Amino acid sequence: MKKCLSLFALLQLISTWSLAQSSVQQLLTENRVNPIGLDVTIPRLSWQLIATKQNVRQTAYEVRVNTDAASIAKGAVWQSGRVASDQSVHVLYAGTALKPGQRYFWQVRIWDNTATKPSAWSPVAYWQTGLLTAGNWKAKWIEPGYVEDTVNRPSPLMRKVFATPKKVRSATLSITAHGLYEAQINGKRVGDAYLTPGWTSYNNHLQYQTYDVTNLINQGQNAIGVSLASGWYRGRLVWENQRNMYGKNLALVGQLAITYTDGSSETVITDESWKSSTGPVRFAEIYDGEIYDSRLEKAGWTTAGYADSDWSGVMTKPFGYTNLVANYNELVGQHETRKPVKVITTPKGETVLDFGQNLVGWVKFKVTGKAGDKIVLSHVEMLDKFGNPYFENLRTAKALATYLLKGGTETLEPHFTFFGFRYVQINGLTGPINPADFTAITLYSDIPKTGEFTTSNALVNQLQSNIQWGQRGNFLDVPTDCPQRDERLGWTGDAEVFSRTAAFNFGVNNFFAKWLKDVTADQFSNGAVPFIIPDVLNKRPVKDEPAGAAGWSDASIIIPWNMYLAYGDRRIVEQQYATMKAYEGYMERVAKNDLWSEGFQFGDWLSYVTTEGSPAFEAKSAFTDNHLVAQCFYAYSTDLMRKAAMLLGKTEDVTHYAALLERIKKAFQNAYMTPSGRLISDTQTAYVLALQFDMIPENLRPQAVDRLVDNVKKYNNHLTTGFLGTPFLCHVLTRFGRTDVAYKLLLQETYPSWLYPVKMGATTIWERWDSMKPDSTFQSPSMTSFNHYAYGAVGDWMYRTITGIDTDETDPGYKHTIIKPQPGGGLTSASASLQTYYGTVRSSWKKEADKLSFTVEIPANTTATIYVPAKNAEAVLESGKSLSAAGLTAAGSGPGYVVLKIGSGVYNFTSSGL
Ligand code: BGC
Predict the structure, then answer these.
(1) Residue of 143, 182, 290, 487 marked catalytic
(2) pTM attached to this predicted model
(3) What is the pLDDT of residues 425-447, one digit of tens each?
(4) In this structure, what is the dihedral angle of CA atoms 300, 303, 305, 307, given to the nearest 10 degrees?
(5) Quick check: helix, strand or coil at residue 362?
(6) Which of the listed CATH numbers 3.40.50.1000, 2.60.120.260, 3.40.50.2000, 2.40.30.270 matches domain 332-445?
């Protein structure tokens, strides 16, 4: 008996031993979990290996796809078979051609280097195709059939009753609009997205959304109701009171594909049979807010029994479907909620709620009142030094939420606008305010949070929080410059400088992939890229001459490359290559003898300028020649074009751009540099950009670094850089061995610096270094936002240098990670983690006296090069063991580092004698 038992145990052991150690999870289709409505005909599949051991690598995978989850084992749509490969991200679907409106279920299993047998099959995931082509649209575009009040333009209500006589197996709604829409079926909200269909270059690229509404459909009578609003389509946009940028009338198109359990199907479409009217939303605009009259609510209008005999009909319109594409990025959703932290009575006797955080969204509140009572909520970011709300920086944006009560108790919130605010002034409420009745709700794209970063320095941690809140507030379907004033536009420069930081904090792969399609859609025929995307500046009567500007238009080249680095997303480079090349071509044409020295440039926007009351140190403003800046970005983009061409195997382009790059640098040196390496602009930005992009010959770089460091000293250890110099300032100091100076600048607490706003109570990133001046007065209201993420681009350096997490260009997307932490600045600890498509990358260190403990986590199926701060390999232990005992070999060492090449797993290093 005993012998049998031990034999059984041994067999057990062998069988488990031969099974793969890792399991498979986090299945993504086009970077999203179970997306519904994808028009991508060859979707990319990704998964993560979960392993308990170190050094786990996938050696092969097998994918199976079927339209029926229950019989997925058949893999009728695609059976990949065993594919010898370590690829687990962006594996191309290679099954039968996809059908429209079809849900595809898929599974994967892997083999790894720790066993002979495959892992268990993963949990089942799926994606559902959208309509795939314009030809699959059956619905008609419909517009309200009544005469519109063209002043306020109340929100139209559109409705239709339909019957479903049999048991429904599935129901999918595909819908979009000219304007914003919110849909309900049988009184229930469709989906949890807001401000749909979002903002794109509508006439070229209008996204439709797809919803699984099976659970909302009754057997029998049903009703669908959709309310519309002006939104970005025809609402006021840009600061010149311009409306109707994309069109004058709101319209709706939608089709509901219903499949019954008996296999039959039918489609309910928007057509002449719909009805239209107006309701409680009397006015709704992005900048100016919303007016909601509860007395005009039409209770039950989205249910079948509602009496709509007095409603108008609708008009069908031949707008076509060729510009319609399924939503690719994450939709805008509601996220954090906050209660007021304080109720303030202002010197002017107003009641103001302080939500303690500058955020973007709106306020939902409960109120009891009489019919006709008018409640107005005004939204501001700051109180002035007297304690009154500061409205001036909103410029012409009213940012008001106005409610006319129906009497009794009701809960109210807007629908078709958003506000950038920390404080809300309330007018019209009688009686004491109960802060518990008020909730601020944040609105931003459903981008997954991927990054955590913290240090032993509370101010730096607040800076990190401000960067993340700035991103939340300005990643609302489009990367906007600011969320509060009469702007809120997709400024390309801001998006470009912030894009790498953005990719640390949140998953922005699809967010930017969608936005870049609008870069392509709105690119000028001469290749120039508009300063704002979606481009509304050139929809105004006074068209700008199609021109590009350095640092702004380069977003068309820089962001695709940054997404490739951060996510290994080769397709975004393929998708954008023609647009990238066209912009590069534009620069080549406007440059004379490879020097881009003419035409409008933003330059180093908002760099340090002296104003009265400026700090006593160096009074000189830091203006950098705009064309010196332009030449540096010309080189930067040309180098990225060379790399992109290399990646895509475009050898001719590689040769062309490599040669062009050398010429651009030569032209720079001739035009802007003395033979000794001094630049015509003696500013931090000039030296930063010239060093960052290797514009200066190698032998002259050390003097340039010295000039940069001297300049910082001259300004009493303050930065003076603007939008374009700031993102690279610390990187250049680190690259050339002056991380000590970078830390000085990071930890500087007086203006201009990153921590000065933090010291002044900021909870987001400010547009200007001194949006609020040291005397608590404000910079000119003509342009002072308290929620502008551009200067938050330092976040990238914080992750990549303080904790040292970085991509490897030859193996991007963290397939191979480089971790080289550079402790300093008196920090005693720092920790960061990043959710990559492979899993969690983590780096955290703690310094005590001359000892450092340093932990890294590397996802399965990836590798890493680790720089352990140490004087030599002997001084390093891993989990208390010497490197050799831990099975690790130093791959090299540099000043103050021991370099290790490691596989996946968690490693706990300690090093002493630092
Ligand atoms: C915007 C900035 C933008 C700049 C370019 C400003 O109005 O707010 O974000 O980069 O214009 O000039």
Answers:
(1) 487
(2) 0.96
(3) 999 998 889 999 999 999 999 99
(4) 50
(5) strand
(6) 2.60.120.260
